[in-house]
Amino acid sequence: MTATAAPAVGRPAVPRWVWVLPPVAFILVAVGYPLVGIVSRTFTDKAERPAGLATWESTLTDDAVLSALGTTVQVAALSTAGCLVAGTFLALVLAFVPFPGSGGVVRLIEAVVSFPSFLIPLALGVLLGPVGVANAVLGPLGMSTGSFTSSLWGVVLAEIAFYTPFVVRPVLASLRQFPADQVNVASSLGAGPLRIVGRVILPSALPALAAAGSLTFLLTLNEFGIVLFTGAKDVITLPMLIYTRSIVGQDFASAAVLATVQLVISVGVYVLYRLLVRKGAR
């Protein structure tokens, strides 16, 4: 005969849904309440009086807002494209061109992610700024970098330098799983390096590239510190405009509208990013 297990004696089991309540309550208080406050502020005017959709209409038809939206998308798209090109090249080199110290290079690239974003424009300013090293060398030759660091392309270069590691890591992980036999077979059939990369290697890394590109676009879309520290007065993005209207102009109603628009765009890009990650994991 087999002994039957005695019924457990003690406190009754706590329902599983009870453990969900604390994190849900925290999210509602820390995230939900501020979001509701921001959205409700969009239906008031600058003096906090009810205004219906008037603030939305005046804000979204403002030429400065439309220009900032276009600049935001332009900077994010250019930065993402640059990160994809630079990150893919670095990942290919690290995965298929072994050299001493490659592991240290990977660690160095990863370390950049831990830096505050404003360090990159400061470093570029020291190197390429009006009183930087490059101007000190090129000045006597009658050449100058001018105000490159405070231009749109200066902002894009700074964002590429900071966000490229977000492309390198997932693409490198994908390439390291690529069968080396396929490269050897393509090479034995007479395919050159560029054809092997374009026809054999990169197609297998497309899900990782798509996910990395979506994440980079999301991050650059919301970047504020790099744009602020470059001092690019002509590069007004949505985060910069939100800061200017809320802190400088004290127009919190208009800033709330812009913040809501930024939030909707960011959530849409994030959903796309998650779909691409899920597709790549299949």
Q: What oligomeric state do the depicted chains represent?
A: single chain
The CATH architecture of one domain is Orthogonal Bundle
Number of strands: 0
Major sheet characteristics: none
Structure, briefly:
The protein is mainly α and about 280 residues long. The protein has helices spanning about 15-40, 55-60, 65-95, 100-110, 120-130, 135-140, 150-165, 165-175, 180-190, 195-220, 225-230, 240-250, 250-280.
Word description of this protein:
There is one protein chain. With 282 residues, this protein is mainly α. The protein has a domain at 74-232: MetI-like (MetI-like fold). It has 13 helices and no strands. The radius of gyration is 25 Å and the shape is globular.
Chain-wise SSE layout:
Layout: H1 16-41, H2 54-60, H3 63-96, H4 102-112, H5 119-128, H6 133-138, H7 152-163, H8 165-175, H9 180-188, H10 193-221, H11 225-230, H12 238-248, H13 252-281
Give descriptors for this structure.
mainly alpha, 13 helices, MetI-like fold
